[in-house]
Amino acid sequence: MDDDMRELYQEVILDHGKNPRNFRQPEDANCEARGNNPLCGDQLTVYLKVDEGRLIRDAAFEGRGCAISMASASMMTQIVCGKTVSQVQSLFDKFHKLCTGEMEEFPQDEFTDDMEKLRVMSGVRRFPMRVKCATLSWHTMNAAASGHNETTTE
Amino acid sequence: MDATLSNIDLERSSYDVDAIRAEFPILASEFNGYPLTFLDSGASAQKPECVLRCMDDVYRRSYANVHRGAYALSQAATDYYEGARKTVARYLNARSDDEIVFTQNVTAAINLVAHSYGRNFLERGDEVIISQMEHHANIVPWQLLRDEIGIELKVAPIDEAGNLLLDQLAEMFSHKTKLVSLTHVSNVLGTIVPIKKVIDLAHERDIPVLIDGAQGIVHTRVDVQDLDAEFYAFTGHKLYGPSGIGVLYGKKDLLNTMPPYQGGGDMIERVTFEKTTYRDAPARFEAGTPPIVEAAGLAAAIDYVDGIGMENISSHEQELLNYATERLNEVDGITIYGEAQHKAGIISFTLDKVHPHDIATIVDSRGVSVRAGHHCAQPLMDWYGVAATTRASFGMYSNKQDVDALVDGIKYVKEIFS
Question: What is the pTM (predicted TM-score) of this model?
Fold first, then answer.
Protein backbone atom coordinates (compact mmCIF):
# COMPACT_ATOMS: atom_id res chain seq x y z
CA MET A 1 0.00 0.00 0.00
CA ASP A 2 2.86 2.35 0.72
CA ASP A 3 4.00 1.72 -2.87
CA ASP A 4 0.56 2.78 -4.13
CA MET A 5 0.85 5.93 -2.03
CA ARG A 6 4.26 6.71 -3.47
CA GLU A 7 2.93 6.08 -6.96
CA LEU A 8 -0.05 8.37 -6.34
CA TYR A 9 1.99 11.12 -4.75
CA GLN A 10 5.03 11.11 -7.02
CA GLU A 11 7.53 13.95 -6.82
CA VAL A 12 6.24 15.44 -10.07
CA ILE A 13 2.72 15.59 -8.69
CA LEU A 14 3.79 17.06 -5.37
CA ASP A 15 5.86 19.64 -7.23
CA HIS A 16 3.01 20.69 -9.55
CA GLY A 17 0.63 20.60 -6.57
CA LYS A 18 2.80 22.96 -4.55
CA ASN A 19 3.83 25.21 -7.44
CA PRO A 20 1.11 24.98 -10.05
CA ARG A 21 2.14 26.30 -13.49
CA ASN A 22 -0.08 28.75 -15.35
CA PHE A 23 -1.97 29.57 -12.18
CA ARG A 24 -3.33 32.90 -13.43
CA GLN A 25 -6.15 34.60 -15.28
CA PRO A 26 -4.94 35.68 -18.74
CA GLU A 27 -6.37 39.00 -19.84
CA ASP A 28 -6.85 37.89 -23.42
CA ALA A 29 -8.56 34.56 -22.73
CA ASN A 30 -11.63 34.08 -24.91
CA CYS A 31 -12.96 30.85 -23.43
CA GLU A 32 -13.45 30.01 -19.80
CA ALA A 33 -15.39 27.53 -17.73
CA ARG A 34 -15.89 26.81 -14.06
CA GLY A 35 -15.53 23.28 -12.85
CA ASN A 36 -17.13 22.10 -9.67
CA ASN A 37 -16.83 18.83 -7.81
CA PRO A 38 -19.99 18.86 -5.68
CA LEU A 39 -18.72 15.89 -3.73
CA CYS A 40 -15.86 17.79 -2.13
CA GLY A 41 -16.65 21.41 -2.97
CA ASP A 42 -13.46 21.89 -4.97
CA GLN A 43 -13.73 24.49 -7.71
CA LEU A 44 -11.52 25.68 -10.48
CA THR A 45 -11.74 27.92 -13.51
CA VAL A 46 -9.93 27.13 -16.74
CA TYR A 47 -9.06 29.93 -19.17
CA LEU A 48 -8.18 29.35 -22.81
CA LYS A 49 -7.13 31.61 -25.64
CA VAL A 50 -8.33 29.89 -28.79
CA ASP A 51 -7.54 31.41 -32.19
CA GLU A 52 -9.63 31.35 -35.37
CA GLY A 53 -8.06 28.08 -36.45
CA ARG A 54 -9.26 26.49 -33.16
CA LEU A 55 -5.65 26.39 -31.95
CA ILE A 56 -5.12 26.85 -28.20
CA ARG A 57 -2.65 29.72 -27.81
CA ASP A 58 -2.75 29.96 -24.03
CA ALA A 59 -4.15 27.88 -21.20
CA ALA A 60 -4.30 28.77 -17.52
CA PHE A 61 -6.36 28.08 -14.42
CA GLU A 62 -7.27 29.28 -10.96
CA GLY A 63 -8.93 27.49 -8.09
CA ARG A 64 -8.46 25.37 -5.05
CA GLY A 65 -8.27 21.68 -4.52
CA CYS A 66 -6.18 18.71 -3.49
CA ALA A 67 -2.66 17.97 -4.68
CA ILE A 68 -3.98 15.63 -7.37
CA SER A 69 -6.40 18.14 -8.87
CA MET A 70 -3.93 21.04 -8.72
CA ALA A 71 -1.17 18.95 -10.30
CA SER A 72 -3.45 17.62 -13.00
CA ALA A 73 -4.68 21.12 -13.89
CA SER A 74 -1.13 22.45 -13.91
CA MET A 75 0.19 19.72 -16.21
CA MET A 76 -2.85 20.01 -18.45
CA THR A 77 -2.30 23.72 -19.10
CA GLN A 78 1.25 22.94 -20.23
CA ILE A 79 0.21 20.09 -22.48
CA VAL A 80 -2.83 21.58 -24.26
CA CYS A 81 -1.07 24.77 -25.24
CA GLY A 82 -0.25 24.70 -28.97
CA LYS A 83 -2.77 21.97 -29.78
CA THR A 84 -6.09 22.27 -31.58
CA VAL A 85 -9.37 21.88 -29.74
CA SER A 86 -10.06 18.58 -31.50
CA GLN A 87 -6.59 17.30 -30.60
CA VAL A 88 -7.05 18.03 -26.90
CA GLN A 89 -10.45 16.37 -26.97
CA SER A 90 -8.83 13.16 -28.25
CA LEU A 91 -6.10 13.55 -25.67
CA PHE A 92 -8.69 13.99 -22.91
CA ASP A 93 -10.31 10.73 -23.96
CA LYS A 94 -7.00 8.91 -23.62
CA PHE A 95 -6.18 10.64 -20.35
CA HIS A 96 -9.55 9.62 -18.94
CA LYS A 97 -8.87 5.99 -19.83
CA LEU A 98 -5.45 6.27 -18.20
CA CYS A 99 -7.00 7.55 -14.95
CA THR A 100 -9.74 4.94 -14.77
CA GLY A 101 -7.33 2.14 -15.64
CA GLU A 102 -9.37 1.23 -18.74
CA MET A 103 -6.21 1.36 -20.84
CA GLU A 104 -2.67 1.01 -19.60
CA GLU A 105 -0.86 0.92 -22.94
CA PHE A 106 -1.51 3.36 -25.74
CA PRO A 107 -0.62 2.94 -29.45
CA GLN A 108 2.21 5.04 -30.85
CA ASP A 109 0.71 8.19 -32.29
CA GLU A 110 0.99 11.97 -32.19
CA PHE A 111 0.11 11.91 -28.47
CA THR A 112 2.72 9.40 -27.32
CA ASP A 113 5.02 11.97 -25.72
CA ASP A 114 2.15 13.70 -23.94
CA MET A 115 0.79 10.44 -22.63
CA GLU A 116 4.20 9.54 -21.26
CA LYS A 117 4.21 12.82 -19.30
CA LEU A 118 0.64 12.30 -18.13
CA ARG A 119 1.40 8.78 -16.99
CA VAL A 120 2.45 10.15 -13.57
CA MET A 121 -1.27 10.74 -12.93
CA SER A 122 -2.17 7.11 -13.53
CA GLY A 123 -1.74 6.28 -9.82
CA VAL A 124 -5.35 7.42 -9.31
CA ARG A 125 -6.62 4.31 -11.11
CA ARG A 126 -6.24 2.42 -7.84
CA PHE A 127 -8.31 5.06 -6.00
CA PRO A 128 -11.73 5.32 -7.71
CA MET A 129 -12.79 8.10 -5.31
CA ARG A 130 -9.89 10.23 -6.55
CA VAL A 131 -10.30 9.82 -10.32
CA LYS A 132 -12.52 12.90 -10.43
CA CYS A 133 -9.78 14.93 -8.76
CA ALA A 134 -7.50 14.15 -11.71
CA THR A 135 -10.13 14.68 -14.41
CA LEU A 136 -11.96 17.79 -13.13
CA SER A 137 -9.60 20.22 -14.87
CA TRP A 138 -9.82 18.28 -18.14
CA HIS A 139 -13.63 18.21 -18.00
CA THR A 140 -13.54 21.94 -17.35
CA MET A 141 -11.07 22.62 -20.17
CA ASN A 142 -13.26 20.55 -22.49
CA ALA A 143 -16.32 22.59 -21.45
CA ALA A 144 -14.45 25.85 -22.02
CA ALA A 145 -13.27 24.74 -25.46
CA SER A 146 -16.81 23.66 -26.38
CA GLY A 147 -18.29 26.99 -25.32
CA HIS A 148 -19.93 25.81 -22.08
CA ASN A 149 -19.32 27.86 -18.98
CA GLU A 150 -20.11 25.41 -16.24
CA THR A 151 -19.31 21.81 -15.66
CA THR A 152 -19.37 19.38 -12.79
CA THR A 153 -17.84 15.99 -12.34
CA GLU A 154 -21.26 14.47 -11.64
CA MET B 1 2.35 16.18 27.15
CA ASP B 2 -0.45 14.59 29.06
CA ALA B 3 -0.76 11.26 27.33
CA THR B 4 -0.02 9.40 30.56
CA LEU B 5 -2.67 11.32 32.41
CA SER B 6 -5.23 10.52 29.72
CA ASN B 7 -4.21 6.87 29.89
CA ILE B 8 -5.01 6.78 33.54
CA ASP B 9 -8.29 8.62 33.02
CA LEU B 10 -9.39 6.12 30.43
CA GLU B 11 -8.38 3.16 32.57
CA ARG B 12 -9.94 4.53 35.70
CA SER B 13 -13.43 4.52 34.28
CA SER B 14 -15.35 1.28 34.46
CA TYR B 15 -16.21 1.65 30.81
CA ASP B 16 -14.99 -1.52 29.09
CA VAL B 17 -14.26 -0.35 25.58
CA ASP B 18 -12.62 -3.68 24.61
CA ALA B 19 -15.79 -5.57 25.49
CA ILE B 20 -17.81 -3.08 23.47
CA ARG B 21 -15.47 -3.36 20.49
CA ALA B 22 -15.88 -7.13 20.56
CA GLU B 23 -19.61 -6.60 19.90
CA PHE B 24 -18.92 -4.83 16.58
CA PRO B 25 -17.76 -7.47 14.05
CA ILE B 26 -16.43 -4.99 11.50
CA LEU B 27 -13.89 -3.62 13.98
CA ALA B 28 -11.98 -6.90 13.78
CA SER B 29 -11.28 -6.41 10.08
CA GLU B 30 -8.13 -5.19 8.41
CA PHE B 31 -7.83 -2.63 5.66
CA ASN B 32 -4.74 -2.24 3.55
CA GLY B 33 -2.93 -4.59 5.92
CA TYR B 34 -3.68 -2.45 8.98
CA PRO B 35 -6.35 -2.96 11.64
CA LEU B 36 -9.41 -0.84 10.90
CA THR B 37 -9.35 2.53 12.63
CA PHE B 38 -12.87 3.76 12.08
CA LEU B 39 -13.17 7.46 12.81
CA ASP B 40 -16.22 8.34 10.74
CA SER B 41 -19.03 7.40 13.11
CA GLY B 42 -20.44 10.90 12.71
CA ALA B 43 -21.31 10.01 9.12
CA SER B 44 -22.64 6.59 10.03
CA ALA B 45 -21.87 4.35 12.97
CA GLN B 46 -20.96 0.67 12.85
CA LYS B 47 -23.47 -1.95 14.02
CA PRO B 48 -23.28 -4.22 17.03
CA GLU B 49 -23.95 -7.95 16.83
CA CYS B 50 -27.38 -7.58 18.52
CA VAL B 51 -28.64 -5.27 15.75
CA LEU B 52 -27.37 -7.58 13.01
CA ARG B 53 -28.88 -10.62 14.73
CA CYS B 54 -32.20 -8.94 15.39
CA MET B 55 -32.64 -7.89 11.76
CA ASP B 56 -31.57 -11.29 10.50
CA ASP B 57 -34.04 -12.97 12.90
CA VAL B 58 -36.95 -10.80 11.81
CA TYR B 59 -36.28 -11.57 8.15
CA ARG B 60 -35.86 -15.28 8.85
CA ARG B 61 -38.69 -15.83 11.29
CA SER B 62 -41.09 -12.93 11.65
CA TYR B 63 -41.29 -11.14 8.32
CA ALA B 64 -44.49 -10.05 6.59
CA ASN B 65 -46.03 -6.67 5.84
CA VAL B 66 -47.37 -4.78 8.84
CA HIS B 67 -50.88 -3.59 9.75
CA ARG B 68 -52.36 -5.81 7.04
CA GLY B 69 -52.93 -9.44 7.40
CA ALA B 70 -55.14 -11.21 9.87
CA TYR B 71 -52.47 -13.86 10.05
CA ALA B 72 -49.90 -14.63 12.70
CA LEU B 73 -46.82 -13.66 10.71
CA SER B 74 -48.14 -10.20 9.88
CA GLN B 75 -49.02 -9.78 13.54
CA ALA B 76 -45.49 -10.79 14.54
CA ALA B 77 -43.98 -8.22 12.16
CA THR B 78 -46.44 -5.57 13.37
CA ASP B 79 -45.42 -6.33 16.96
CA TYR B 80 -41.79 -5.68 16.04
CA TYR B 81 -42.65 -2.46 14.22
CA GLU B 82 -44.99 -1.03 16.84
CA GLY B 83 -42.75 -2.38 19.59
CA ALA B 84 -39.94 -0.30 18.09
CA ARG B 85 -42.15 2.77 18.34
CA LYS B 86 -42.64 2.06 22.04
CA THR B 87 -38.90 1.63 22.52
CA VAL B 88 -38.19 4.98 20.85
CA ALA B 89 -40.96 6.71 22.83
CA ARG B 90 -39.61 5.31 26.08
CA TYR B 91 -36.02 6.23 25.22
CA LEU B 92 -36.99 9.83 24.40
CA ASN B 93 -39.43 9.98 27.33
CA ALA B 94 -42.26 10.94 24.99
CA ARG B 95 -45.74 11.24 26.49
CA SER B 96 -47.15 8.80 23.98
CA ASP B 97 -46.11 6.34 21.28
CA ASP B 98 -48.25 8.42 18.92
CA GLU B 99 -45.63 11.17 19.07
CA ILE B 100 -43.11 8.97 17.24
CA VAL B 101 -43.26 9.14 13.44
CA PHE B 102 -40.94 6.81 11.55
CA THR B 103 -39.30 8.45 8.55
CA GLN B 104 -36.44 7.50 6.28
CA ASN B 105 -33.86 9.70 8.03
CA VAL B 106 -33.46 13.20 9.50
CA THR B 107 -33.59 14.78 6.06
CA ALA B 108 -37.01 13.21 5.45
CA ALA B 109 -38.18 14.30 8.92
CA ILE B 110 -37.22 17.94 8.35
CA ASN B 111 -38.75 17.91 4.88
CA LEU B 112 -41.93 16.51 6.43
CA VAL B 113 -42.12 19.43 8.85
CA ALA B 114 -41.23 21.97 6.13
CA HIS B 115 -43.98 20.63 3.86
CA SER B 116 -46.72 19.77 6.27
CA TYR B 117 -46.19 22.35 9.00
CA GLY B 118 -44.43 24.96 6.91
CA ARG B 119 -46.82 25.09 3.98
CA ASN B 120 -49.89 25.18 6.20
CA PHE B 121 -48.93 27.38 9.12
CA LEU B 122 -46.43 29.77 7.56
CA GLU B 123 -47.15 32.49 5.07
CA ARG B 124 -45.29 35.04 2.98
CA GLY B 125 -43.04 37.20 5.15
CA ASP B 126 -42.94 34.78 8.09
CA GLU B 127 -39.48 33.95 9.38
CA VAL B 128 -37.69 30.69 10.09
CA ILE B 129 -34.48 30.99 12.10
CA ILE B 130 -31.63 28.53 11.63
CA SER B 131 -27.97 28.87 12.63
CA GLN B 132 -24.65 29.33 10.86
CA MET B 133 -23.63 25.75 11.61
CA GLU B 134 -26.52 23.80 10.11
CA HIS B 135 -26.18 20.72 7.95
CA HIS B 136 -27.59 21.18 4.43
CA ALA B 137 -30.53 19.02 5.58
CA ASN B 138 -31.62 21.87 7.86
CA ILE B 139 -31.00 24.59 5.27
CA VAL B 140 -32.25 23.41 1.90
CA PRO B 141 -35.80 22.32 2.94
CA TRP B 142 -36.37 25.87 4.26
CA GLN B 143 -34.95 27.40 1.09
CA LEU B 144 -37.36 25.31 -0.96
CA LEU B 145 -40.18 26.57 1.26
CA ARG B 146 -38.89 30.13 0.89
CA ASP B 147 -38.91 29.83 -2.89
CA GLU B 148 -42.38 28.32 -2.83
CA ILE B 149 -44.30 30.53 -0.38
CA GLY B 150 -41.99 33.47 0.27
CA ILE B 151 -40.87 32.94 3.89
CA GLU B 152 -37.67 34.58 5.12
CA LEU B 153 -34.75 32.48 6.28
CA LYS B 154 -32.67 34.08 9.04
CA VAL B 155 -29.32 32.81 10.22
CA ALA B 156 -28.26 33.03 13.87
CA PRO B 157 -24.53 33.77 14.24
CA ILE B 158 -21.80 31.82 16.01
CA ASP B 159 -18.47 32.96 17.42
CA GLU B 160 -15.05 31.85 16.18
CA ALA B 161 -14.97 28.95 18.65
CA GLY B 162 -18.27 27.68 17.30
CA ASN B 163 -20.59 28.74 20.14
CA LEU B 164 -24.08 29.82 19.14
CA LEU B 165 -24.56 33.48 20.09
CA LEU B 166 -27.71 33.18 22.19
CA ASP B 167 -28.22 36.89 22.84
CA GLN B 168 -28.06 37.68 19.16
CA LEU B 169 -30.40 34.82 18.41
CA ALA B 170 -32.93 36.15 20.93
CA GLU B 171 -32.71 39.59 19.35
CA MET B 172 -33.69 38.10 16.00
CA PHE B 173 -37.08 36.98 17.31
CA SER B 174 -39.98 39.06 16.03
CA HIS B 175 -43.72 38.69 15.67
CA LYS B 176 -42.95 37.24 12.24
CA THR B 177 -40.77 34.43 13.61
CA LYS B 178 -42.78 31.24 13.20
CA LEU B 179 -40.17 28.54 13.73
CA VAL B 180 -36.66 28.02 15.06
CA SER B 181 -34.94 25.04 13.44
CA LEU B 182 -31.63 24.27 15.02
CA THR B 183 -29.00 21.58 15.22
CA HIS B 184 -28.41 19.95 18.61
CA VAL B 185 -24.77 19.14 17.91
CA SER B 186 -22.76 20.55 14.99
CA ASN B 187 -21.61 17.75 12.69
CA VAL B 188 -18.49 19.73 11.82
CA LEU B 189 -17.48 21.58 14.98
CA GLY B 190 -18.89 19.20 17.58
CA THR B 191 -20.52 22.14 19.38
CA ILE B 192 -23.23 21.00 21.77
CA VAL B 193 -25.82 23.75 21.40
CA PRO B 194 -27.63 24.71 24.63
CA ILE B 195 -30.94 23.83 23.00
CA LYS B 196 -32.88 23.87 26.27
CA LYS B 197 -32.06 27.58 26.63
CA VAL B 198 -32.99 28.28 23.02
CA ILE B 199 -36.28 26.42 23.38
CA ASP B 200 -37.13 28.36 26.57
CA LEU B 201 -36.28 31.66 24.86
CA ALA B 202 -38.39 30.78 21.84
CA HIS B 203 -41.29 29.62 23.96
CA GLU B 204 -41.33 32.95 25.79
CA ARG B 205 -42.42 34.29 22.41
CA ASP B 206 -44.64 31.27 21.58
CA ILE B 207 -42.29 30.26 18.79
CA PRO B 208 -42.16 26.52 18.10
CA VAL B 209 -38.77 24.78 17.80
CA LEU B 210 -37.48 21.93 15.66
CA ILE B 211 -34.24 20.27 16.77
CA ASP B 212 -32.06 18.41 14.25
CA GLY B 213 -30.78 15.68 16.54
CA ALA B 214 -28.78 13.70 13.96
CA GLN B 215 -25.60 14.14 16.03
CA GLY B 216 -27.29 15.10 19.31
CA ILE B 217 -28.97 11.76 19.93
CA VAL B 218 -25.64 9.98 19.53
CA HIS B 219 -23.69 11.95 22.09
CA THR B 220 -26.23 13.13 24.67
CA ARG B 221 -29.25 11.83 26.54
CA VAL B 222 -32.42 13.32 25.09
CA ASP B 223 -35.58 13.79 27.14
CA VAL B 224 -38.22 15.39 24.93
CA GLN B 225 -40.49 16.36 27.83
CA ASP B 226 -37.66 18.11 29.60
CA LEU B 227 -36.53 19.86 26.40
CA ASP B 228 -40.12 20.65 25.42
CA ALA B 229 -39.25 21.16 21.73
CA GLU B 230 -42.16 20.81 19.34
CA PHE B 231 -40.12 18.54 17.06
CA TYR B 232 -36.96 16.47 17.51
CA ALA B 233 -35.56 14.52 14.56
CA PHE B 234 -32.89 11.83 14.53
CA THR B 235 -31.69 8.97 12.38
CA GLY B 236 -31.09 5.30 13.14
CA HIS B 237 -27.83 4.68 11.36
CA LYS B 238 -25.80 7.13 13.42
CA LEU B 239 -27.16 5.53 16.60
CA TYR B 240 -25.69 2.10 15.77
CA GLY B 241 -28.90 1.04 14.01
CA PRO B 242 -29.60 0.45 10.34
CA SER B 243 -29.84 3.04 7.59
CA GLY B 244 -33.25 3.72 6.07
CA ILE B 245 -35.02 4.64 9.29
CA GLY B 246 -35.31 7.94 11.09
CA VAL B 247 -37.59 9.39 13.72
CA LEU B 248 -39.59 12.57 13.90
CA TYR B 249 -40.77 13.18 17.43
CA GLY B 250 -43.59 15.74 17.47
CA LYS B 251 -46.02 16.91 20.11
CA LYS B 252 -49.17 14.92 19.56
CA ASP B 253 -51.66 17.78 19.39
CA LEU B 254 -49.47 19.60 16.93
CA LEU B 255 -48.94 16.54 14.71
CA ASN B 256 -52.70 16.04 14.52
CA THR B 257 -53.23 19.58 13.24
CA MET B 258 -50.77 18.96 10.41
CA PRO B 259 -51.99 17.63 7.05
CA PRO B 260 -50.43 14.52 5.52
CA TYR B 261 -47.11 14.94 3.73
CA GLN B 262 -47.34 11.98 1.38
CA GLY B 263 -50.50 10.12 0.39
CA GLY B 264 -50.89 6.38 0.07
CA GLY B 265 -51.83 3.24 1.90
CA ASP B 266 -51.83 2.89 5.67
CA MET B 267 -52.39 6.59 6.37
CA ILE B 268 -56.09 6.75 5.54
CA GLU B 269 -59.33 6.18 7.41
CA ARG B 270 -61.61 5.93 4.38
CA VAL B 271 -60.98 6.48 0.71
CA THR B 272 -63.57 7.24 -1.94
CA PHE B 273 -62.87 8.96 -5.25
CA GLU B 274 -64.67 12.03 -3.91
CA LYS B 275 -63.05 12.35 -0.51
CA THR B 276 -60.47 10.71 1.72
CA THR B 277 -60.12 11.06 5.46
CA TYR B 278 -56.83 10.54 7.25
CA ARG B 279 -55.80 8.70 10.36
CA ASP B 280 -54.29 10.47 13.32
CA ALA B 281 -50.54 10.75 13.80
CA PRO B 282 -48.29 8.90 13.49
CA ALA B 283 -50.11 6.82 10.85
CA ARG B 284 -51.04 9.83 8.74
CA PHE B 285 -47.36 10.50 8.14
CA GLU B 286 -46.40 6.92 7.35
CA ALA B 287 -47.83 6.29 3.88
CA GLY B 288 -46.91 3.01 2.27
CA THR B 289 -44.99 0.02 3.58
CA PRO B 290 -42.65 1.33 6.26
CA PRO B 291 -39.08 0.25 7.07
CA ILE B 292 -40.24 -2.73 9.14
CA VAL B 293 -37.00 -4.58 9.81
CA GLU B 294 -35.10 -1.31 10.12
CA ALA B 295 -37.48 -0.29 12.92
CA ALA B 296 -36.74 -3.56 14.71
CA GLY B 297 -33.01 -2.95 14.21
CA LEU B 298 -33.29 0.57 15.56
CA ALA B 299 -35.06 -0.69 18.68
CA ALA B 300 -32.29 -3.26 19.20
CA ALA B 301 -29.70 -0.50 18.84
CA ILE B 302 -31.50 1.73 21.35
CA ASP B 303 -31.74 -1.12 23.86
CA TYR B 304 -28.03 -1.74 23.41
CA VAL B 305 -27.12 1.93 23.86
CA ASP B 306 -29.42 2.17 26.86
CA GLY B 307 -27.84 -0.92 28.39
CA ILE B 308 -24.42 0.73 28.28
CA GLY B 309 -25.86 4.09 29.24
CA MET B 310 -25.64 7.25 27.16
CA GLU B 311 -24.02 9.08 30.09
CA ASN B 312 -21.21 6.49 30.11
CA ILE B 313 -20.80 6.69 26.35
CA SER B 314 -20.69 10.49 26.51
CA SER B 315 -18.05 10.61 29.19
CA HIS B 316 -15.93 8.02 27.36
CA GLU B 317 -16.15 10.10 24.18
CA GLN B 318 -15.34 13.22 26.16
CA GLU B 319 -12.09 11.71 27.42
CA LEU B 320 -11.21 10.61 23.90
CA LEU B 321 -11.98 14.07 22.57
CA ASN B 322 -9.63 15.61 25.11
CA TYR B 323 -6.94 13.08 24.27
CA ALA B 324 -7.37 13.62 20.52
CA THR B 325 -7.28 17.40 20.92
CA GLU B 326 -4.02 17.15 22.88
CA ARG B 327 -2.41 14.73 20.45
CA LEU B 328 -3.46 16.67 17.33
CA ASN B 329 -2.19 19.90 18.84
CA GLU B 330 1.24 18.27 19.14
CA VAL B 331 1.44 18.09 15.34
CA ASP B 332 2.90 21.19 13.69
CA GLY B 333 0.58 22.82 11.18
CA ILE B 334 -2.70 21.44 12.56
CA THR B 335 -5.60 23.86 13.04
CA ILE B 336 -8.65 22.58 14.90
CA TYR B 337 -12.04 24.03 13.96
CA GLY B 338 -14.54 24.17 16.78
CA GLU B 339 -13.47 24.96 20.29
CA ALA B 340 -16.85 25.51 21.86
CA GLN B 341 -17.27 25.27 25.59
CA HIS B 342 -19.28 22.08 25.27
CA LYS B 343 -18.27 19.70 22.54
CA ALA B 344 -19.20 16.18 21.51
CA GLY B 345 -16.82 13.57 20.08
CA ILE B 346 -16.24 15.29 16.75
CA ILE B 347 -12.99 16.99 15.79
CA SER B 348 -12.43 18.86 12.52
CA PHE B 349 -9.01 20.06 11.49
CA THR B 350 -6.82 21.19 8.64
CA LEU B 351 -3.11 20.63 8.09
CA ASP B 352 -1.02 23.40 6.54
CA LYS B 353 -0.38 23.00 2.82
CA VAL B 354 -2.15 19.64 2.55
CA HIS B 355 -5.70 19.31 1.26
CA PRO B 356 -8.07 17.21 3.43
CA HIS B 357 -8.67 14.77 0.57
CA ASP B 358 -5.01 14.00 0.33
CA ILE B 359 -4.94 13.46 4.09
CA ALA B 360 -7.92 11.10 3.94
CA THR B 361 -6.44 9.03 1.10
CA ILE B 362 -3.05 8.75 2.74
CA VAL B 363 -4.27 7.86 6.25
CA ASP B 364 -6.65 5.35 4.65
CA SER B 365 -3.58 3.53 3.35
CA ARG B 366 -2.81 2.95 7.05
CA GLY B 367 -6.33 1.68 7.75
CA VAL B 368 -7.67 4.97 9.12
CA SER B 369 -11.15 6.05 7.92
CA VAL B 370 -11.80 9.77 8.28
CA ARG B 371 -14.14 12.11 6.47
CA ALA B 372 -12.74 14.88 4.28
CA GLY B 373 -14.73 17.60 2.59
CA HIS B 374 -17.38 20.17 3.39
CA HIS B 375 -19.45 17.79 5.55
CA CYS B 376 -22.69 19.02 3.94
CA ALA B 377 -22.19 22.34 5.71
CA GLN B 378 -20.83 24.63 2.99
CA PRO B 379 -22.12 27.89 4.55
CA LEU B 380 -20.15 27.03 7.70
CA MET B 381 -17.04 26.24 5.65
CA ASP B 382 -17.44 29.58 3.84
CA TRP B 383 -17.76 31.34 7.19
CA TYR B 384 -14.45 29.89 8.32
CA GLY B 385 -12.98 30.56 4.87
CA VAL B 386 -11.98 26.96 4.20
CA ALA B 387 -13.12 24.72 1.35
CA ALA B 388 -12.84 21.54 3.35
CA THR B 389 -11.65 20.03 6.60
CA THR B 390 -10.70 16.57 7.76
CA ARG B 391 -13.02 15.23 10.44
CA ALA B 392 -12.54 12.46 12.96
CA SER B 393 -15.68 11.48 14.85
CA PHE B 394 -15.98 8.98 17.66
CA GLY B 395 -18.44 6.28 18.55
CA MET B 396 -18.88 4.27 21.73
CA TYR B 397 -16.24 1.80 20.45
CA SER B 398 -13.54 4.34 19.64
CA ASN B 399 -10.40 4.11 21.72
CA LYS B 400 -7.08 5.75 22.36
CA GLN B 401 -5.36 3.51 19.80
CA ASP B 402 -7.67 4.95 17.14
CA VAL B 403 -6.45 8.44 18.00
CA ASP B 404 -2.83 7.27 17.97
CA ALA B 405 -3.31 5.63 14.56
CA LEU B 406 -4.75 8.89 13.23
CA VAL B 407 -1.82 10.91 14.55
CA ASP B 408 0.65 8.38 13.08
CA GLY B 409 -1.25 8.61 9.79
CA ILE B 410 -0.94 12.38 9.79
CA LYS B 411 2.79 12.07 10.42
CA TYR B 412 2.97 9.81 7.35
CA VAL B 413 1.09 12.49 5.37
CA LYS B 414 3.70 15.01 6.42
CA GLU B 415 6.46 12.62 5.42
CA ILE B 416 5.01 12.27 1.91
CA PHE B 417 4.45 16.01 1.54
CA SER B 418 7.77 17.02 3.09
Answer: 0.93
